[in-house]
Amino acid sequence: MEEEEEENLQSILQWAAALGISDSINNNNNSASSSSSSSCLGRSLSVSHFPEAGGRGLAATRAIRKGELILRVPKSALMTTHSLITKHQKQVLSSALGKYPLLSSTQILSIVLLNELDKGRSSCWYPYLKQMPRSYDLLASFGQFEIEALQIDDAIWTAQKAVQKGKMEWEEAKPLMSELNIKPQLITFKAWLWASATISSRTMHIPWDTAGCLCPVGDFFNYAPPEEDPWNSTEEIFDSNVDRLIDAGYDEAVASYCFYAKRHYREGDQVLLSYGTYTNLELLEHYGFLLQENPNDKAFMSLEPEMYSLCSWPKESLYISQDGKPSFALLSTIRLWATPVVQRRSVKHIAFSGHQISSENEVAVMEWLANRCQVLLSSFSTSIEEDTLMLRIIEKIQDFDVPTSDYGETPSVLRNEICSFLERPSCHTASVALCVLSSSLRASTVRQPLTCGIVCQKVRTLPSSMGSARDLISPLGLERIQDQ
Ligand SMILES: C[S@@+](CC[C@H](N)C(=O)[O-])C[C@H]1O[C@@H](n2cnc3c(N)ncnc32)[C@H](O)[C@@H]1O
């Protein structure tokens, strides 16, 4: 398997070099030069494995300075709906597409991607397609048990919606795929999920198609959250690349997708790309992974009905951040609510300018928040300690094939859950959950049926909202609250 992966990798790097993709950038004349080379990488970047941060990714082969252009992918190497409609097929595809005007640009890209896959070795994109992940762990591929294991309402709701959307889009696309005579196994829901997850997790923005483009080799960059708010960054203003607030983009002037280093890297460091600002739930939904430390994660808080009438903030602005800080909207609303009714009018401006109203008021606010967190945490069926224990058991089972009767000190609630999940037949969903939950385990996605059910349990340890809800406890000084 590893040998096959290595072969696939070598063939895509050669293929990419022939298309003019290059990490060898001559900054003087701004031209990429490696089309004669046997690999498109090696001058600035190399493919490497980062078990704790995305698996396959790109490492710096030398010290790289912030702002350097590190990879360029010419327009002709970008896989787009347009580039997938070859001259040969243009008429057939265009007239078939014309009959389904309601399909979205993303659905169309999924269809032409599956159509390309259908060509097998005869596709000119074959080396690229061959090295793509075989399955993904986005919310849309979650089964019922994995969804329930998320525990928190908005995560469950988001997952259910993602599954429904996937099914609906597939139903809408099926007639066209049949009309194009795509092989039956590529018209299945599973194949559809693969195509739409490929697009969701690997495409990049281009100005001429809202579905975006697949960018060979550029899509080997793993994710790091943006480090700072570019609008508040003074350093950015004096940086030589002053007008570039993102680390990758299509540059019409050189007709290429260009990738820049967002910070300094030492040789051997993983070079990361910021795909955008996401909470963990959003990362799971769109990319199929989440981060243990995500500065953009949020725990959304619901308020008392009466509180909503005091403010006009949208619900998405009422949250506690990963560092435990309540959002401006949440804090100002609770401050106002905690003020005696007769005084509210006179202090409203203080609350909505983000200032404390009084120390007494601030204590009441923190008490209310702490209580709310406690209620939220106690509504989950397992605690973080139980989830951690569950993870350890699962890892033991995977490593040593421990019989289910051998769970040692496992609390009976967990033991029962493990057993009932083990009885579930859904092997596929379990391995999906497994992948989602532990990037270090990603390398081996084929799991024994033994681990099927219980891996779903891992879901609950990591999804964002719950993680945040628990994490927020610490900064508020309420470490033990979940054990009470
Ligand atoms: C654009 S691809 C990046 C390259 C990918 N690792 C590969 O081998 O092709 C995006 C996918 O990489 C994985 N990924 C990226 N950044 C990650 C991170 N920080 N932690 C875990 N997985 C990550 C996720 O599976 C995501 O959907």
Give a brief outline of the structure:
The chain is an alpha+beta fold.
Search tags:
single chain; 484 residues; alpha+beta; 3-stranded antiparallel beta sheet; 19 helices; globular; disordered C terminus; binds S-adenosylmethionine
Give an account of the 3D structure.
Residues 43-276 form the SET domain. It holds the Pfam family SET. It comes from Buddleja alternifolia. With 484 residues, the chain is an alpha+beta fold. Helices cover 43% and strands 11% of the residues. The protein contains 19 helices and 13 strands. The strands form five sheets. A four-stranded mixed β-sheet has the order 3-4-11-8, with no helix packed on it. Strands 5-10-9 form a three-stranded antiparallel β-sheet, with no helix packed on it. The protein has a two-stranded antiparallel sheet with strand order 1-2. The longest helix is centred in the middle third of the chain and has 27 residues, at 153-179. The protein starts with a helix and ends in a 13-residue tail after the last helix. The protein binds S-adenosylmethionine (SAM). Residues 53-57, 201-202, 219-220, 222-223, 287-289, 439 line the site of S-adenosylmethionine. S-adenosylmethionine (SAM) binds at residues 53-57, 201-202, 219-220, 222-223, 287-289, 439.
Q: What is this structure's SSE topology?
A:
Layout: H1 2-18, E1 25-26, E2 31-32, E3 45-50, E4 55-60, E5 69-74, H2 81-84, H3 87-98, H4 105-118, H5 126-130, H6 144-149, H7 153-179, H8 189-202, E6 203-206, E7 209-214, E8 222-223, H9 234-238, E9 248-251, E10 256-260, E11 270-273, H10 280-287, E12 298-300, H11 305-308, E13 319-321, H12 328-337, H13 341-351, H14 359-378, H15 384-400, H16 412-422, H17 427-437, H18 455-459, H19 464-471
